[in-house]
């Protein structure tokens, strides 16, 4: 009798609550957090231009919430004859697919709309976009190599340099700081030849921030020199 009383005081199991030996699976709290916040965590949807940075951000978020194995395929679905486990896995995977879709631009979505799993979405995007990403990096590096200041102000010119370098980084590559300095100097007009010679022959290589500051100061000097050359004598 005492055993019966103590047993009746235990909290009921989910089966007892529902009266169903195979209760409906519940979306885990970590997954709810992911699907609720993913568009805030990744404000820029996937396009052909930002695949590398999108991929990195998705991996970070899925790793933080414990679902990265669904992307990489390291977790396999349970056998279909284990119906409760398979149903729970399928619920999670389908929800992850929806989360991924919400971060993909309309132009890319048709590639993956018929994917059967989160890992399938991941592989399709990798096959489709990695080569485009490499092509874009080559294009951007070529733009950087041939960029010229021409009639731009120094601030405008340096902003263009930075924009290209940032876009290269967003495409999953990088440019060595020494190469950025070289390309920046190469794009300067002839009025800056003495400055270019000074930087190239300097025993201490300027970092990018210092170079940009020096260039802005040099622009003032060049403009003053040009104004004096035009002044009547």
From TrEMBL:
One Pfam assignment: Retrotran_gag_2
Polar residues composition bias: residue spans: 1-21
Species whose genome carries this gene: Dendrobium catenatum
Taxonomic superkingdom: Eukaryota
Name of the protein described by the UniProt record: Retrovirus-related Pol polyprotein from transposon TNT 1-94
Region annotated Disordered, chain positions: 1-23
Lineage, uppermost ranks: Eukaryota, Viridiplantae, Streptophyta, Embryophyta, Tracheophyta
């Amino acid at each position: 009798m005492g055993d019966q009383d103590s047993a009746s005081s235990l909290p009921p199991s989910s089966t007892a609550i529902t009266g169903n030996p195979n209760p409906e699976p519940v979306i885990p709290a970590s997954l709810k957090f992911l699907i609720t916040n993913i568009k805030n965590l990744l404000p820029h949807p996937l396009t052909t231009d930002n695949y590398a940075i999108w991929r990195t951000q998705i991996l970070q978020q899925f790793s933080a919430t414990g679902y990265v194995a669904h992307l990489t395929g390291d977790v396999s679905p349970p056998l279909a004859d284990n119906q409760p486990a398979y149903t729970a896995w399928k619920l999670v995977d389908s929800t992850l697919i929806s989360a991924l879709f919400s971060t993909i631009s309309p132009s890319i979505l048709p590639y993956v709309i018929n994917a059967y799993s989160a890992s399938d979405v991941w592989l399709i995007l990798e096959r489709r976009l990695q080569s485009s990403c490499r092509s874009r990096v080559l294009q951007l590096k070529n733009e950087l190599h041939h960029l010229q200041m021409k009639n731009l102000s120094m601030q405008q010119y340096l902003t263009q340099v930075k924009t290209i370098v940032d876009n290269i980084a967003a495409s999953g590559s990088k440019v060595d700081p020494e190469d950025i300095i070289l390309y920046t100097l190469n794009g300067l007009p002839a009025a800056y030849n003495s400055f270019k010679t000074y930087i190239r022959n300097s025993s201490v290589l300027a970092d990018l921030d210092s170079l940009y500051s020096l260039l802005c100061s040099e622009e003032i000097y060049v403009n003053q020199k040009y104004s004096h050359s035009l002044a009547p004598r």
